[in-house]
Design brief:
The chain has about 325 residues and is an alpha/beta fold. The chain contains eight helices and 17 strands. The model has no long low-confidence stretch (mean pLDDT about 95).
Length: about 325
């Protein structure tokens, strides 16, 4: 019997989809290991109000570490708090989201616990009492099945791959003040800047519309913006590395090996040839639609649906059809 701990990431005092997904995976593993799923949320005072909602997604116990100094992410402070909780709870596994924060925090925690870390996991199971995971390797061209024999098994899960489902439970919330001293930290957050336009981040969107060099000019991006607006809420704009390197779009929109990894329900690739570096960041999307005038473009090799044609003709027509369909809803 082994309990599983999920790190519940918060932003501005609110836990979001990444926290719910981590709790859901922890609950799945805990069921197979014969234990309970617990959640750990770290932040400033008042976080417990939002964290309490994680009980509905499978967390039997929700530990909330509230401290003024932890309102903003601090790698040293957060790592110490998580390690202390893991050791005191004697957990069999620890689940982190593979978010920007999670990718920074999880390796630090694993190093302090002296255990290996399986990153960017896309499937989990339990084999002979050990956590087994599936994760992409070689830029997503293959998948590795890895059995984590160390205790605790540490892993990060790819965003949007594991759908959080309500289980009807109600976790017990415990609030405490972590024993940390911000004066001892070697780094501290002095400023945090979000996207200036307030648009949804590509890693959080259920639909991503991405553009590549085939867009020809940054002035043509309004075509993708029109399509995004026609589809509606929960849609984000993405871009290939070539576009970002050219200065057409901000780095925050870059999808790929050197950008962000996404796994939305729908990924629309417009004017993107499909270099392996780009495919590594989006090939686990549930449905992929490619629009490109080159019928031999590699993107069609991973696409579920493909349109061979001039994007400057196809995209406006697609946008208009989407608007007509939305009006009929």
């Amino acid at each position: 019997m082994a309990n599983v701990l999920a790190f519940a990431e918060q932003r501005d005092g609110q836990v979001g989809s990444s926290a719910r997904e981590a709790v859901g995976v922890a609950a799945t593993l805990a069921d197979a290991l014969g234990g309970e799923a617990h959640a750990l949320a770290i932040g400033g005072p008042g976080l417990s109000v939002s964290a309490a909602s994680l009980g509905a997604f499978g967390a039997a116990a929700i530990e909330v570490g509230e401290h003024e100094g932890l309102a903003e992410y601090n790698p040293e402070g957060y790592a110490d708090v998580v390690v202390a909780r893991v050791r005191s709870g004697d957990y069999g596994a620890v689940v982190f989201p593979a978010s920007t924060l999670g990718k920074d925090l999880a390796p630090r925690v694993a190093a302090k616990l002296d255990v290996p870390l399986a990153s960017d996991v896309t499937a989990v199971s339990v084999v002979d009492g050990h956590v087994s995971v599936r994760r992409p390797v070689f830029s997503g061209k293959a998948f590795a099945e890895v059995v984590l024999e160390a205790t605790p098994a540490a892993l990060t899960i790819r965003p949007n791959v594991f759908q959080a489902e309500e289980r009807g439970g109600e976790g017990v919330v415990s609030t405490y003040t972590p024993d940390v001293d911000p004066a001892d930290w070697r780094v501290r957050v002095v400023e945090r800047k979000g996207a200036s336009d307030g648009k949804l981040d590509v890693t959080e969107a259920s639909i991503v519309v991405s553009g590549g060099r085939g867009m020809k000019d940054p002035e043509n991006w309004h075509l993708l913006e029109d399509l995004r607006d026609a589809i509606g809420a929960d849609v984000a704009l993405g871009a290939s590395r070539a576009v970002v390197d050219a200065g057409w779009r901000p780095h925050g929109e870059q999808v790929g090996q050197t950008g962000k990894t996404v796994a939305p329900k729908l990924y629309v690739a417009v004017g993107i040839s499909g270099a392996i570096q780009h495919l590594a960041g989006m090939r686990t999307a549930k449905t992929i639609v490619a629009i490109n005038r080159d019928a031999d473009a590699p993107i069609f090799g991973v696409a579920d649906y493909g349109i061979v044609g001039d994007l400057f003709e196809v995209v406006p027509k697609l946008t208009e059809e989407v608007r007509v369909l939305k009006q009929g809803d």
